[in-house]
Design a protein that fits this description.
This protein is 43% helix and 17% strand. It is α/β, with parallel strands linked by helices. The chain is globular, with a radius of gyration of 19 Å.
Length: 335
């Protein structure tokens, strides 16, 4: 394959590339022919070189893989960044347990973007708690709110998976699954949007096909989907976040539009100054937010999720990682 067949020639930097998520993202990006120019960045140089060697051994044609432990080299000229560069979650931990350390990492990431690649077009944040790390990155980076997204779409896909398993269907037969709000145990799982082989899910809940009790169990499995992977595999999930994150950055590069809900900066008449999953479309122009619609109980669950995120945001403000909301514009004039 020649570089003329790639989606773009722009530089894509994978942060945390020596880890399992980062290395899988690099391979997925290469397999999807997004760009010939992929830069791998990590502080752990031997592991980083190992990833680069393995990618070379795949024999991808036209691919210019570079790797470095230099922030300046990795970020300079980067037009797209995907970062998994935080501490992973371990068994027994919630995403929120990672708050302080990973929020500080996100602040440094944002500062590096502002310093070395202020004309970066899009950043996808994976490391948890993603609602907060994405928000911190945005504030420190100086980028526009439309240019920073987080991996909340994984929750909607987990809902699709659980419903498909319950009904014994191909996953593609379950459509328009949606979770909104936080990417954590306070997420709002919606039923009113989904269809199962063309039938609205709401018409199936409470029947012999899906009892109310079974639906509540499915919601809990979605909420704890990441924790279940840790329990089963002994490590935090890496295949699904890697693939979904690269699908997202592909949309930002001008590939297939990404239509699952992503975590994004929200400041409207209902939700103010947070990063949370909304109804979105991600394309070459960035994130486009649409109105979330649900029944009374679903909207109440979304409000509860929002209030939880506000508390987490305020905790990070108290830590000094980000300034009070009224001062955000001093760091980022786009806010």
């Amino acid at each position: 394959m020649s570089d003329m067949e790639f989606l773009t020639k722009d530089k894509l930097t994978i942060v945390g590339a020596a880890g399992m998520i980062g290395s899988n993202m690099a391979q997925t990006a290469a397999m999807m022919h997004l760009t010939p120019n992929i830069c791998l960045y990590d502080v752990y140089l031997p592991g980083l070189e190992g990833v680069a060697e393995e990618l070379r051994h795949c024999g991808f044609e036209g691919l210019n893989i570079t790797f470095t432990d230099s922030v300046e080299e990795a970020f300079s000229g980067a037009k797209y960044i995907v970062s998994s560069g935080g501490a992973p979650r371990k068994e027994g931990m919630t995403r929120e347990d990672l708050l302080k350390g990973n929020a500080s990492i996100a602040a440094e990431l944002g500062d590096n973007i502002k310093r070395y690649c202020p004309d970066c077009r899009h950043v996808v944040i994976i490391f948890n708690p993603a609602d907060i790390t994405g928000l911190v990155t945005l504030i420190h980076s100086g980028l526009k709110p439309t240019q920073v997204s987080t991996l909340a779409a994984l929750d909607s896909i987990r809902l699709q998976s659980e419903l498909a398993k319950h009904f014994g269907l191909l996953q593609s037969k379950v459509t328009n699954c949606r979770t909104y709000g936080g990417h954590g145990e306070q997420m709002a799982v919606f039923a009113s949007t989904a269809k199962v082989d063309g039938t609205p899910l709401t018409k199936l809940i409470g029947t012999d096909k899906l009892s109310e009790e079974s639906w509540q169990e499915i919601k809990q499995r979605v909420i704890k989907g990441g924790a279940n992977i840790i329990k089963l595999r002994g490590r935090s999930s890496f295949q699904s976040p890697s693939y979904v994150a690269i699908e997202m950055i592909a949309g930002a590069m001008g590939g297939e539009v990404f239509t699952k809900p992503v975590g994004c900066y929200v400041n409207n008449d209902r939700f103010q100054h947070v990063m949370m999953a909304m109804e979105t479309r991600l394309d070459k122009e960035g994130i486009h937010i649409a109105k979330v619609e649900g029944n009374e109980d679903e909207m109440a669950a979304l409000q509860k999720s929002y209030e939880h995120l506000i508390k987490m945001r305020d905790n990070v403000i108290e830590m000094g990682v980000i300034p009070p909301v009224a001062e955000w514009s001093k760091l980022n004039p786009n806010l």
